[in-house]
């Protein structure tokens, strides 16, 4: 996150965002819901291909503003503000959510297990899978979008207040601010939605409802 935020060249930005999204994609694969079993090689292959495609696409999207600016030599202050300060946060948030949705797509294609209040599995629901993936994608977007946006606001305020007087100190201060925001946003992101998600009876498929009289159901959301 820190290295990606300080890049000024499209090629370097692509490389570091590729590394960043590779890590987050691997984390997503390991910490997703385990219901869709990889009993056949085709499922593993599909997830790897989707993951690689999502990583490449996200890295390209993240580097595109810098490539556009360098290609057309847009050096005015407004373009600098938009490309280097305003665009990175929403782009990183959207691409982080995109990689989650792509890598965990088997969960809403095949469904995930839902349980009753006592922990008994009552069926496999695609709607619960979709809800789990979307909640995780949203929490990931908030985590990294805020981590890119809030430090820029804080650094602007510090510079306006002349709190940091030495230009050499800007780099270490920026790094400290980014790490502090990321550390603070991690528990916020993980607690946005409960790990054991809840889905109402009316939101489930009829074939599951026909086998039980329970009104509330639960599922493992993943991280």
TrEMBL record:
GO terms for molecular function: monoatomic ion transmembrane transporter activity. InterPro entries: Mtc. It is a multi-pass membrane protein. The keyword Ion transport does not apply. The chain crosses the membrane at residues 48-69, 81-103, 137-158, 170-193. GO terms for cellular component: mitochondrial inner membrane. It is found in: Mitochondrion membrane. GO terms for biological process: amino acid transport; mitochondrial transmembrane transport. The keyword Mitochondrion applies. Keywords: Amino-acid transport, Membrane, Mitochondrion, Transmembrane, Transmembrane helix, Transport. It holds the Pfam family SFXNs. Belongs to the sideroflexin family. This is SFXN4 protein. It comes from Loxia curvirostra (Red crossbill). The lineage of its organism: Eukaryota, Metazoa, Chordata, Craniata, Vertebrata.
